Amino acid sequence: MKRDIIEKLKSWKESPDRKPLVLKGVRQCGKTFILKEFGKECYSDVAYFNFEETPRLAASFEQDYDVKRILFELGLLRGKTISEGVTLIIFDEIQECGRALTSLKYFCENARGYHVACAGSLLGIALNEDRSFPVGKVDFLTLYPMSFYEFTAATESEELADYLKNFNKGGKVAPAVSEKLENILKEYFLVGGMPEAVESWRTERDIEKVETIQQQIITSYELDFAKHARAAVFPKLSAIWASVPQQLSKPNKKFIFSQVKKGWRAKDLEDSLRWLISAGLIYKVEKTEKPFFPLSSYADASVFKIYLCDVGLLRRLAKVPPQIVLESSGIFTEFKGAMTENYVLNELVRSTDERPYYWSSNNSAEVDFIVQSGAEIVPIEVKSSTNVKARSLAEYRRKYSPKYSVLTSMKPDTSGEEILDIPLYLVSSMKNFIEE
Asked: What average pLDDT does range 37-52 have in this prediction?
C-alpha cells in the first residue's frame, strides 16, 4: 500500500548531512514494511536485523562500539558483506538491545557513509532507564497510521486520493463525488489507519475480521506495557489507556486524573501519561486562553484533552458497534464528537507534525483546535454533521479577529474567505487552503 513517507525517506538517503535514522511510530503502523520497501526501491542491497527475533545479534555490540568490527560480524551472520553507501542496514526492534541503540552515536561519528535505519517500540525505549539514547546523533522521521488520503488510495483508487490531495480552495466538489467521499470517511471511522486493518478491509470488506485485527493491536500495546514497565507503572499505563474513550465522551472532554481511577491524582499518573505521549500512543492537546505567539507560552499544561493515535482504535477501544458507523445515519449519532475530533486531530498531526492546542474562555465558549500556520494563528471548529452553526468560533472571531478561521463539517463547501468551510474529508489539505 502506498505511503507518503517514502518521499521523505528518499530525501534522507540523498542528504549530505545524513545521520542514522530512527523511524518513530506506534507499534504495527507499518515501520518495518516501509523500511523494507524503501530498501528494495532505493538500494541494491538490504541487511535486515531484528533484535527481538534474533537475540544473539546483541553479542556483536557487547565488546565495544568499534563500528567496523560490528559491521564485519553482522556481515558474517547474514552471509554477505555490508557495503558502505550500497547496503541499507535496518535495525528492527532496536529497543531490545540497548547497546545497539547507543551504537548509533558511533555510526554517526565514525561511519557516516553507512546508511542505517532503525525501528522499534518507543514505549520500550522511554520506559527503560538503563538505555542511553544518542541525542543529537540521529535523524528522526515519524510514520503515523494511514491518513484518510492513504486509506482512500488503498481501498478505492489512487485517482480519487490524488483528487483529494490536489484539491484547491477555489474548487467545488461535485455532489456525487462528495457523497462517495462521505461514505469512504464512514468506512475510515470504522477501520482507522492501521495498515493490517486497512489491508483486511481492502481485500475482504469483513467487519468482524477488521475488529479482530484491531483488538489484537490493542492487546499488543497492553502487552508492551507489561513487558517494558515496572510492576508499579504497568497498571497506571493500562488505566490511562483504557480511560481515553470515557474521558472523551464527556461534554467538555477535559482529562481528569481522578476519573482514571478513584484516589489517583496527577502526581501519581503524570510520568505514565508522559510515557504514553512519548510513544505516540496518545496526544495531549493543551488549553490556551490567549491565542498569541508563541502558542506554547500561553498554554496551560495542567488543563488538557487526550486523544488516541488512531480513530479506528478509538472506536474499538470504546466498543462502538460497527453498524453505528456504517449505517447511513449512524456515524454521527453515537460518540460522534469524540470520534470526529480524534480524526481531525490525527489528520492535523500527520500533515503538520505539530500538536495543536484548544481555546476556552471562562467555560462560555470553546474552539476545538488552535494551530500556528506561518504568521497566523488559526482557530478550527469541528462539527460532526452538516450542522454549520459555530457559536464558539463566532465568539473567538469577535474577540481576536483572526485573519483566517476554519469550520470543518460534512458540508462540502470550500468557498469561504475569512471562514474556510472545509469538508471533513479534506481536513488534511487545510494547510494548503490557508497558504492559498
From this structure: 98
Locate cell 479506528: which residue? 312
Q: What share of the chain is helix, strand, coil (3-state, %, to 5)?
A: 50, 15, 35
What is the 8-class DSSP label of residue 35? H
Q: Other C-beta atoms within 10 Å of 266: how many?
A: 12
Convert the pLDDT of each residue in 133-144 to its tens digit: 788 999 999 999
Q: Could you count the other beta carbons within 10 Å of the beta carbon of residue 20?
A: 23
Which DSSP string corresponds to 343-384? Answer: HHHHHHHHHHSS--EEEEETTTEEEEEEEEETTEEEEEEE-S
Predicted TM-score (pTM) of the model is 0.93
What does 244-306 look like in DSSP terms, one character per residue? HHHHHTSSS----GGGTSTT--HHHHHHHHHHHHHTTSEEEEEEESS--SSGGGGEEEEEEEE
φ, ψ of residue 10 to 5 degrees: the values are -65, -40
Q: How many CB atoms lie within 10 A of CB 274?
A: 12
Domains of the chain: 6-142 (3.40.50.300), 148-435 (no CATH)
Has residue 373 got a pLDDT over 90? no
Q: What are the φ/ψ torsions at residue 216 (nearest 5 degrees)?
A: -65, -40
Q: 294 preceded by cis ω (within 30°)?
A: yes
Is residue 392 within 8 Å of 370, Cβ to Cβ? no
For 89, the 3-state DSSP assignment is strand
The angle subtended at Cα 396 by Cα 392 and Cα 399, nearest 5°, is: 140
